[in-house]
Amino acid sequence: MRKYVIMGVQGSGKGTQAKMLRGDLDLVHISVGDIFRWHVRQHTKMGAQVKRIMAAGELVSDELVEEVVRRRMGIHDWNYGFIIDGFPRNGRQAEFFMESYDIDAVIHLELPDDEVRRRVLSRRLCPSCGMDYNLIADRPEVEGRCDICGNELITRADDTPEALESRLTDYHEKTRPVLELFRRKEVVHDVDGRPPVEDVQQAIRKTLGLPAYRG
């Protein structure tokens, strides 16, 4: 069983790389961000709360994040292991997670702030089916329209320049120290997140001693 955490500032490609790892390794991909966005789309009580927080460029409270993670991990559908992204984001969450699970590796995707801004501000989302697009590398066939359902694409509420700057500051102040906690256990693997997606995936697999990615 493989248990991985993937970390990196927003826009570093955590979700994309996690899904590529999941494919042929039979891992369960657990994305805290995706769980929250599902609640927003479904207009749940939690979704309304999260929407207000995201629009302000702030992070969801530790208590709410830990509750969501605990519920998701409690499903126990990860027979061959899991890769979790979007968690932990600070020291308290890291301590909570390390007390509950033995982590095999933490994949840290490194990305300069300027590249983060370029990537994040180019993202678009389909509010109907949830498909993600990036105007740099993954443009829709019809400009402004989802390839799957045809709905008009929107910018995420938390992808404004102001919200992004707030998250960058929060990341450097709170999340980077989490890496130091994991480094004490010698499980952190730093990977350059700037190259093309498949090159980053190959680098991740090489540093973890996994079979090469074959697409």
From TrEMBL:
Chain residue ranges for the region called NMP: 31-60
Membrane as UniProt keyword: no
UniProt-listed SUPFAM superfamilies: P-loop containing nucleoside triphosphate hydrolases (SSF52540)
Binding-site residues for Zn(2+), renumbered to this chain: C126, C129, C146, C149
Subcellular compartments: Cytoplasm
Ligand binding (AMP): R37, E58, L59, V60, G86, F87, P88, R89, Q93, R156, R167
Enzyme class: transferase
Pfam families for the chain: ADK, ADK_lid
CDD domains attached to this UniProt entry: ADK
Predominant location: cytoplasm
Region (LID): 122-159
GO molecular function, one term: kinase activity
Protein task: Catalyzes the reversible transfer of the terminal phosphate group between ATP and AMP. Plays an important role in cellular energy homeostasis and in adenine nucleotide metabolism.
UniProt comment concerning the protein's domains: Consists of three domains, a large central CORE domain and two small peripheral domains, NMPbind and LID, which undergo movements during catalysis. The LID domain closes over the site of phosphoryl transfer upon ATP binding. Assembling and dissambling the active center during each catalytic cycle provides an effective means to prevent ATP hydrolysis. Some bacteria have evolved a zinc-coordinating structure that stabilizes the LID domain.
Family: Belongs to the adenylate kinase family.
PANTHER family: NUCLEOTIDE KINASE
HAMAP family: Adenylate_kinase_Adk
Protein name (Swiss-Prot/TrEMBL): Adenylate kinase
